[in-house]
From TrEMBL:
Key word Transmembrane present: no
One term under GO cellular component: extracellular region
Catalytic activity: a 1,2-diacyl-sn-glycero-3-phosphocholine + H2O = a 1-acyl-sn-glycero-3-phosphocholine + a fatty acid + H(+)
Molecular functions (GO terms): calcium ion binding; calcium-dependent phospholipase A2 activity; phospholipid binding
GO BP, sorted A to Z: arachidonate secretion; lipid catabolic process; phospholipid metabolic process
Biological source species: Crocodylus porosus (Saltwater crocodile)
Protein's UniProt name: Phospholipase A2
Disulfide bonds: C56-C146, C58-C74, C73-C128, C79-C153, C80-C121, C89-C114, C107-C119
Family per record: Belongs to the phospholipase A2 family.
Length: 158
């Protein structure tokens, strides 16, 4: 059922109620990148499609200076995935089990190091996005307006 939430925009909007209900229910997930999509919906109540091309860091790639708190959340998530890759994990393909309790991503029963790292990245990002304001004017923000200066990633030792 989660794959429905990743359909192109018109189809996703028709079933957004299903996606929101599914993500908010206390259900188990295990699917790779789909986890990120589900955790976004869990933490924010929005479809993950709302974050594709948002600002300078949400979606694929990233450059320049983040435009707002939501974009900073995306930058931090990119940094977290970079750190997971440096540790030998493949965060975009890593599958892990998690549940959504209320608007909180819970994955505290994981034992695999990479599963834990990637889930923690997605968990922290979902919480960050949930607390951040969302500016519809930043959807599909043109990369050339992001500039060349960019913040560095700061990692906390594990």
């Amino acid at each position: 059922a989660v794959w429905l939430c990743s359909l192109p925009l018109p189809a996703a909007s028709q079933i957004s109620g299903i996606c929101n209900a599914f993500a908010k229910s206390r259900s188990l997930h295990r699917r790779g990148l789909i986890e990120l999509s589900g955790t976004i919906t869990c933490g924010t109540g929005r479809s993950s499609l709302a974050y594709i091309g948002y600002g300078c860091y949400c979606g694929l790639g990233g450059q320049g200076w983040p435009k707002d708190k939501t974009d900073w959340c995306c930058h931090k998530h990119d940094c977290c995935y970079d750190k997971a890759e440096q540790e030998g994990c493949d965060p975009k393909m890593q599958r892990y089990e998690w549940i959504c309790e209320g608007n909180t991503v819970v994955c505290d029963k994981l034992t695999d190091r990479c599963e834990k790292m990637v889930c923690q990245c997605d968990q922290e990002a979902a919480s960050c996005w949930g607390a951040a304001s969302y500016n519809p004017n930043l959807i599909f923000w043109p990369n050339f307006l992001c500039g060349q200066n960019h913040p560095t990633c700061h990692f906390t030792p594990i």
